[in-house]
Design brief:
By secondary structure, this protein is an alpha/beta fold. The chain has a domain of 183 residues: Rossmann fold (3-Layer(aba) Sandwich), CATH 3.40.50.150. Helix content is 35%, strand content 21%. It contains 10 helices and 7 strands. Helix 3 links the parallel strand 1 and strand 2. The N terminus is likely disordered.
C-alpha cells in the first residue's frame, strides 16, 4: 500500500504553546481489550514505521516542547513501540540511559533488531504499563507518546508512573483525544448503532481526573490538531491496520460487518470529501508535562 502522508499543519490557535485546560466534553470511560491491543501492535511491528508519520511528528514536538536537559539517570519510554522516542532521547541526550517498555512483544523484538548506535543503548522490557515491574523512585523521567490511551484504566498507569518516578521527576505524555477520527466515527454511527466500529479515546475531563488520581501535577497542557487526507476510506482503514490501531473496544462486532452497513458507512463518509478531492481524518491530541511533587 502506498503510504498517505499526513498533512503537516496545525489548526489556528492549536500549538504546543497553548497551555491550560483543553476544551473537550466528557464522554465516559473507554473500554479496551488489552490483549487485542498487544496482539495487534505485535503483528504491526514490521510495517509500523512506514506509516507512523504523525506519531513521529508529535514525538519530536513533545521532546522539543518539554526538554530533558536537566535530567540525569534513567528515562522510561512507556509504550515504546519500535523504539523511536527512546532513540530520539538518546540522540539528544547521550549521557542518559533509556528503558523502552511495551506490552507488545513483537514491537520489542523489532526494536531490538535495530543495530544503530542509539538503539544499542536502550534496554527493552515487555510489561504492562498498569503493572510496572520497576522499583519505587527508580526512574528520573518518563515519556509516553500515543500509548497510554490503550490502558483500560488510565489512572492505574499514571499511578504506576508516579510510583517509579523520583520526586520531582516528570512524565511527558501525548495521547489522542475523543474527537480523533470523528469523521469515521460519525459515519459508522449513522450506518450501524449496534456496535462500536472505531476505537474510543479518552476525553480531556477524564484524563485530568486520572492525572489527579495518580498523584501527578500538571505543569503544562496543550492541544495539537492534525488532519490527514486520503483518496478513500479504504486507504485510511488500511493505514490504521498497518499501525496496529485496529478496533480494540470491548463493544466491537466480533463477526463480519454486513456489506450493506459497510456501504452505508462509505456513503456517509463521502459527505466529508474536501475540495481537494480527498477524505479528511482528524486527529485531536492532548499533550502534557506532568511532575511528581517533591513533598
Amino acid at each position: 500500500m502506498r503510504a498517505v502522508q499526513v498533512v503537516r499543519r496545525m489548526d489556528e490557535g492549536e500549538n504546543l504553546e497553548s497551555e491550560g485546560r483543553l476544551e473537550q466534553k466528557p464522554e465516559g470511560v473507554v473500554q479496551v481489550d488489552k490483549s487485542r491491543v498487544a496482539s495487534s501492535f505485535g503483528r504491526a511491528a514490521e510495517r509500523y514505521d512506514s506509516v507512523a508519520y504523525l506519531q513521529r511528528l508529535v514525538a519530536d514536538q513533545l521532546l522539543e516542547w518539554a526538554q530533558l536537559s536537566d535530567v540525569t539517570g534513567l528515562v522510561l519510554d512507556v509504550g515504546c513501540g519500535t523504539g523511536y522516542v527512546a532513540k530520539q532521547v538518546l540522540r539528544d541526550y547521550p549521557a542518559l540511559a533509556c528503558l523502552g517498555l511495551d506490552i507488545a512483544e513483537g514491537m520489542l523484538q523489532y526494536a531490538q533488531r535495530d543495530q544503530s548506535n542509539d538503539a544499542g543503548k536502550v534496554h527493552w522490557l515487555c510489561a504492562d504499563a498498569e503493572r510496572l515491574p520497576l522499583a519505587d523512585s527508580s526512574i528520573a523521567a518518563a515519556v509516553s507518546n500515543f500509548a497510554l490511551q490503550w490502558c483500560p484504566n488510565l489512572s492505574n498507569a499514571l499511578t504506576e508512573v508516579f510510583r517509579v518516578l523520583v520526586p520531582g521527576g516528570r512524565l511527558l505524555m501525548t495521547l489522542p483525544a475523543h474527537d480523533t477520527l470523528r469523521e469515521l466515527k460519525e459515519s459508522w454511527r449513522r450506518a450501524d448503532t449496534s456496535y462500536s466500529h472505531v476505537n474510543e479515546f479518552p476525553d480531556e475531563e477524564r484524563v485530568l481526573r486520572d492525572i489527579a488520581a495518580g498523584g501527578l501535577r500538571v505543569r503544562r497542557a496543550a492541544r495539537i490538531s492534525r488532519c490527514a487526507y486520503y483518496p478513500s476510506v479504504v486507504d485510511l482503514t488500511m493505514e490504521l491496520k498497518t499501525l496496529g490501531a485496529q478496533n480494540a473496544t470491548l463493544g466491537r462486532n466480533r463477526a463480519m460487518t454486513s456489506k450493506r452497513r459497510y456501504q452505508d458507512m462509505l456513503a456517509h463518509y463521502e459527505r466529508f470529501r474536501c475540495a481537494n478531492g480527498k477524505l479528511p481524518a482528524t486527529w485531536r491530541i492532548l499533550a502534557f508535562e506532568l511532575e511528581k511533587p517533591r513533598d
